[in-house]
Amino acid sequence: xxxxxxxxxxxxxxxxxxxxxxxxxxxxxxxxxxxxxxxxxxxxxxxxxxxxxxxxxxxxxxxxxxxxxxxxxxxxxxxxxxxxxxxxxxxxxxxxxxxxxxxxxxxxxxxxxxxxxxxxxxxxxxxxxxxxxxxxxxxx
Length: 140
Hints:
This is ATPase. The chain has helices spanning 14-22, 24-30, 108-130, 136-139; strands at 2-10, 35-36, 44-49, 52-62, 66-73, 82-90, 93-103. By secondary structure, it is α+β, with helices and mostly antiparallel strands. It has one domain (2-133): START domain (Alpha-D-Glucose-1,6-Bisphosphate, Chain A, domain 4, 2-Layer Sandwich), CATH 3.30.530. The chain starts with a strand and ends with a helix. The longest helix has 23 residues, at 108-130. A seven-stranded antiparallel sheet has the order 1-7-6-5-4-3-2, with helices on one face. It is globular and about 40 Å long. Strand 3 (44-49) and strand 4 form a beta hairpin.
């Protein structure tokens, strides 16, 4: 099994970062404007990118600490993977560790997603530090 792992340091309060990763306002600024999200364990978050939609069941929400999603519908290589965001505040900065675990193999799609998760963290940083992320629609 393969995993994607990234860490980024944001000059933003941990509560702002957690909010950006769990609310419609935050996720639409950071990832895609076509979404249906709710900060509630068991809820199925939906993120659309043109004709493609990713669906993640929220498994864990620990405010200002951890978010865990499990992919139930997406590209076949994503189904069954988990995406986690672990947050830690140190010296006035928030460290965000993103992991997507459970990949069957390192493929071309895995490498594409690895890049895009890094860009997601950059967009999150822009949103939390400057008030404006770079979502999918802006990248088109």
